[in-house]
Design brief:
369 residues; single chain
Length: 369
């Protein structure tokens, strides 16, 4: 992996040089991990000229799984003084190396930190790196996709085991905690995001925060969870009916959301516009009269963060590339009654390779549990 991280830093270095910047300071944790293999708490990465790269940490890395595994060929500087700022130390090092300019992630730096960097290295011209690293992260290599695939398998296992247990009478909060425990039991570093469990009138809500409401017979039960495996995060969402044959309105609503989700999945091909994928799913629900209640997006990218580019939304600009992992997650919530969400993580693949690769494979059949 050392060669992979070095190659990633090399691409960024070339981009900085083309923009007239001698070095780059990376402070966003996911970007630090992408370029160095690990992101200890508060660590920053200095990408210098001629491969002179260094990770600055306020304390010694712990080696815990949630930090990642640092590129063994990357130099490490652990600051001795209490309260020292790694970003300021990195800027000072760039100045000492006679760099005349430093590209920084202005979208991540606070104003105070930006000023502190400028004060410690007043001769250093600060430029905005923008989202250069995020754009570089967009297309995943096969090792990254393999991590996502394992994360999806773990999430599928956790959800499948829950469906085999007795659910009536248990609270949303209890079910969410059990799912997160099962994720870890099956090898996840932890949940990819706070697990959402919604029952009855809460079902179908996007990112519903679990409450003490108990599962009742006849409820819709919607679940959204994800696993974090070696820093890579997936997402799966399913909706079920509890303890009885689904009512006609539940079948009708479920079939509608399923059709929308299928349309979105089938639109995931290299070259497809982000907004066209959104439209494929959204138009199915809009034509049935649910347009006003729909979320602002149909899906989004996943990777080292659970919500990253691209955004599959009506006004999103850009087109899909192969090897970009995304979610497709339409849903409808009817106030006072409940609703349906169906959410998968997929990898964009060309038709010659079989089309979109589905990572989350738990059945989408409307089951009565």
């Amino acid at each position: 992996m050392s060669d992979v991280y070095a190659a990633r830093r090399g691409l960024l270095r070339d981009r900085c040089a083309a923009a007239g910047n001698a070095a780059a300071l990376i402070t966003r944790p996911a970007n630090v991990r992408y370029l160095s293999g690990a992101s200890p708490l508060g660590a920053v990465l200095l990408v210098g000229p001629s491969g002179e790269d260094m990770l600055f940490c306020a304390g010694q890395p712990t080696g815990e799984a949630d930090e990642g595994r640092l590129d063994e060929n990357l130099r490490l500087s652990v600051l001795a003084g209490p309260g020292a700022d790694p970003a300021v130390a990195a800027a000072d090092a760039a100045s000492a190396a006679r760099a005349d300019s430093l590209a920084v992630e202005e979208h991540h730096l606070t104003v105070g930190r930006h000023r502190a960097i400028g004060s410690v290295a007043p001769r250093l011209r600060l430029a905005d790196l923008g989202t250069a690293v995020e754009q570089q992260r967009l297309v995943k290599d096969e090792e990254e996709i393999a991590c996502l695939r394992i994360a999806a398998e773990i999430a599928d296992q956790a959800l499948g085991e829950l469906l085999e247990s007795i659910l009536v009478g248990r609270t949303e909060r209890h079910l969410a905690l059990e799912l997160e425990r099962r994720l870890v039991d099956h090898g996840a570093d932890g949940p990819a995001f706070p697990t959402s469990v919604g029952t009855g009138p809460h079902s179908g809500r996007s990112r519903h925060r679990p409450s003490d409401r108990r599962v009742e017979e006849g409820d819709f039960l919607s679940v959204c969870l994800g696993a974090n495996y070696r820093g890579y995060r997936c997402e799966i969402g399913r909706t079920f009916v509890i303890g009885t044959t689904p009512a006609d309105w539940q079948i009708e609503l479920y079939d509608l959301v399923f059709a929308a989700q299928r349309a979105g999945r089938e639109a995931l091909l290299p070259g497809a516009a982000y907004r066209d994928v959104d439209h494929a799913a959204r138009s199915v629900l809009d034509s049935a009269g649910h347009g006003e209640a729909l979320a602002a997006w149909t899906g989004h990218g996943v990777g080292l963060e659970i919500d990253e580019d691209p955004q599959l939304a009506p006004t999103a600009m850009g087109k899909l590339d192969a090897c970009v992992p995304v979610t497709v997650e339409p849903g409808v919530h009817l106030p006072g009654r409940g609703g349906v969400r169906i959410d998968d993580t997929l990898v964009v693949r060309p038709e010659a390779d079989g089309g979109p690769e589905l990572l989350t494979i738990t059945t989408k059949e409307l089951l009565a549990l």
